[in-house]
Amino acid sequence: MRALGLLGQVDLPAQIAAVPRARRYVRDLLKGIDHPHTDDALLLLTELVTNSVRHSDSGRCPSGRITIAVAHHDGTLHIDVIDAGSAAGHRPLVCAGVTPDSGGGRGLWLVRELSSAWGWYEILAGRVVWFQLSGR
User: Fold this and answer.
1) What's the pLDDT tens digit per position in 39-50?
2) Where is the Histidine kinase/HSP90-like ATPase domain (predicted)?
3) How far is residue 80's CA from residue 55's CA, in Å, rounded to a whole number?
4) What is the pTM (predicted TM-score) of this model?
5) For residue 59, how many C-alpha atoms fall within 13 Å in the half-sphere facing its CB?
6) For the segment 104-118, what is each residue's pLDDT rounded down to a tens digit?
7) What is the extent of the structural domain holding 127?
8) FRET partner for 98 with CA separation of 20 to 30 A, picked from 3, 7, 80, 111?
9) 63-91 pLDDT, tens per residue?
């Protein structure tokens, strides 16, 4: 398999104001590829950026940053949200017992339910949480 083709990458302050900025950035990138699941991509991006701002060390630091990277290959969209991780040891987990009617804790549940694949891994600079959406 060939490598994913990077559509774009943006670095943003880890503040709640980054959520609409990230959505606009990714929406504009995706206009060029006409992906059938653009709305799902924007919803899942919103969840991951919000989690980064609320739960990572990036969001706890006044100068904290997050990075969003968007790639596309053979109809599959791949989005990474990169932050400083969590020194407190918090890991991205789908909350147990979450349903579509739950009042909270649905972010990663939505990512799991709507994406064709998702996951996370640690890097030297922190953590990457990613998802993919198949165009098929």
Assistant:
1) 999 999 999 999
2) 12-118
3) 16
4) 0.91
5) 19
6) 677 898 999 999 999
7) 5-134
8) 80
9) 999 999 999 998 899 999 999 998 877 78
C-beta neighbour count of 19 within 10 angstroms: 18
* Ordered strands of the 126-134 beta sheet: 5-13, 65-73, 76-83, 126-134, 117-123
Name 80's Cβ contacts closer than 8 Å, sequence gap at least 6: 67, 68, 69, 70, 128, 129, 130
**Cα–Cα distance between 87 and 56 in angstroms, integer?**
8
- Take residue 86 and report the two structure tokens written for it: 């969590």
DSSP string computed for 7-69 = EEEEEEESSTTHHHHHHHHHHHHHHTTT-TTHHHHHHHHHHHHHHHHHHSHHHHSTT-EEEEE
Question: Is 111 strand, coil or helix?
Answer: helix
Tell me how many domains the chain contains: 1
Sheet strands (E) in the chain: 5-13, 65-73, 76-83, 117-123, 126-134
DSSP assignment letter at 104 = S
Question: Which has the closest alpha carbon to 108: 91, 123, 124?
Answer: 91
Q: Could you give the dihedral angle defined by the CA atoms of residues 87, 117, 113 and 66, in that order, rounded to the nearest 10 degrees?
A: 40
Alpha carbon 15 to its chain centroid, in Å, reads 15
SS3 134: strand
